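Do me a favour: review this protein, sequence plus structure tokens, and tell me how the chain folds. Record follows.
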Amino acid sequence: MYLSARNIGFAHNSTFRMDGLNLEVEQGEMLGIIGPNGSGKTTLLKLLAGILRPAAGTVVLRDQDIHTLTRRQLARMRAYVSEGIELPFDFAVEEIVALGRYPHAGMFVRLDDHDTAVLNDALELTDTHRLVHRKFFTLSMGEKQRVMLAMAIAQGPEILLLDEPISHLDIGHQLTFIRTLRHLHSKGTTIISAMHELPLAMEFFGRLCLMDNGRIVQCAPSGDRELLETVKSVFGVPDDRFIK
């Protein structure tokens, strides 16, 4: 299996814990992680990204424990876009997106023509090319999310992990964002994203994993009838109108 979480144990505090969590992701898959607030979606993504280290079990990428990879090796393979978007300095958009090339070019190496072409493609794909000279702190939350996606795309990752990536976008940019993910997926990128927007998750993601209380309740193709019934039960909704 391409990416596996094997018998994962993890605890934030006495109120949240994972025990024996297992998940397998195939290369090139587009997987949505859904569940109520506090169910463990963000924690799972950070474990899969190698940002958090499990107390028990392992996350395995290409038959290798993810925590045996160097930070640079890992950055060349996966990109992670968080929901909370904060930067310590007010960089220009162009500078932020360029950070995505440093795992390949190095921190103090001038970017070459190939790097520049990759940056331009990332800006075009995310509709952020008009923002290149803007300072990050002047952007709306939706614009910031698109800039962070552009930086992640510029990394050229095999795996893209996103935490609630469209939560601050209007409906037009939500659809554009999802179409961008579908484009990346069509080029072979493995996409794993936590999603609050259930109708969009069910429309665009091939498989969904439903989480609740730190465990994966069910994984199934997005149109699976049994999954829809379990979603209704976990979220406490009476019928399909709120999820379709």
